[in-house]
């Protein structure tokens, strides 16, 4: 099941369980690139997904 969320909501949810900022960033990037979440609220998401790892 793919969740549709804003980037702010995704970061907020992940930060409740992550130990530090690096883990937050890594988890958010993984969730977006894997297709498990779909971001809404901005046209920049396509550029974000295509940027090099």
Describe this structure in words.
The chain is mainly alpha-helical. The chain has one domain. About 55% of the residues lie in helices and about 10% in strands. It is built from 3 helices and 2 strands. A two-stranded parallel sheet has the order 1-2. The mean pLDDT is about 85.
What's this model, at a glance?
The protein has 53 residues and is mainly alpha-helical. It contains three helices and two strands, in the order E-H-H-E-H.
Task: Draw up the topology in text.
Layout: E1 3-5, H1 7-15, H2 21-33, E2 37-39, H3 45-50
Parallel strand pairs: 1-2
Q: What's the average pLDDT?
A: 85
Q: For the terminal residues, how far apart are their CA atoms? A: 24 Å
**Radius of gyration, rounded?**
11 Å
Q: What is the β-strand count?
A: 2
Largest sheet: 2 strands, parallel
């Amino acid at each position: 099941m793919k969740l549709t969320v804003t980037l702010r909501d995704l970061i907020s949810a992940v930060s409740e369980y992550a130990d530090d900022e690096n883990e937050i960033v890594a988890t958010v990037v993984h969730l977006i690139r894997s297709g498990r979440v779909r971001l809404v609220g901005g046209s920049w998401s396509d550029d974000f997904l295509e940027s090099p790892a």
